[in-house]
Amino acid sequence: MVQTGTIDQFLQDVSNKRQDEYGGSLEKRNAVVEAVGAERVGIRLSPRGQFQGMGMTNPIPQYAHFVSTLCQKHPKLAYLHVIEARVGGDNPGSHDGPFCVLESNDFLRAIWSPLPFISAGRYDKESALQRAEESGDLVAFGKHFIANPDLPIRLMSNIPLNPYDRKTFYVPGDQKGSDVGYIDYPFASETIDEAKVSIARI
């Protein structure tokens, strides 16, 4: 998978000030597509991202052009993975509620359809199911997977999720002095019981 940060640096006009073949016009900035056009490659984008100074005033023309070109030149890409505009980069609490959709990525869904589209952005079980049923999207989880190593079982069994600790994100282990926030989140007791049964069957 090609991660969102690298690609977004080329796509967003607030960061791409280059004047060579990877900067300037929409067509020139879109030249980065040539580097990722393989059948077994997926690409992740964050059109509304504001992390580390990113954030275009109007990302629709640039991202619509980019994704349209992907469809035309690389129709066999595995998937398009898009981050929903639910949080404001470094200010996750700046919006009303964890599932407040600020801007729609439906313009990308319309372009990419019927190819696989993965949506991510502060989903819980209910909102993920709603998204999948309404749009046919696949839904990805990020932070909840960090705090819940048994996330699929918790979701299927309606087991409450461990809350994640944002302060431990992006901090190297040697700076923490331990593995806090990395491998210390507990499994649900139901998960442990199920694992014991599975091991006993082996």
Helix/strand structural class: alpha/beta
Describe the sheet with the most strands.
4 strands, parallel
Tell me the helix content: 25-40%
Mean pLDDT across the residues is 74
Could you list the spans in which at least 5 consecutive residues all have pLDDT below 50? 87-101
The end-to-end distance, rounded to whole angstroms, is 34 Å
User: Which CATH architecture of the largest domain is right?
Assistant: Alpha-Beta Barrel
Spatial strand arrangement across the major sheet: 1-2-3-4
Number of strands: 4
List SSEs in N-to-C order: HHEHEHEHEHHHH
Q: What is the name of the CATH superfamily of the largest domain?
A: Aldolase class I
How many H/I helices? Answer: 9
Work out the oligomeric state of the chains in this entry. Answer: single chain
CATH topology of the largest domain: TIM Barrel
What is the CA-based Rg, rounded?
A: 19 Å
Anisotropy-based shape: globular
Percentage beta strand: 5-15%
Structure in words:
This protein is of the alpha/beta class. It has 2 domains: 6-140, TIM Barrel (Alpha-Beta Barrel), CATH 3.20.20; 147-152 and 161-201, no CATH class. Helix content is 36%, strand content 8%. It has a 4-stranded parallel beta sheet. Helix 4 (106-112) links the parallel strand 2 and strand 3 (117-120). The two termini are 34 Å apart. The model is unreliable at 87-101 (pLDDT under 50). Pfam families: Oxidored_FMN.
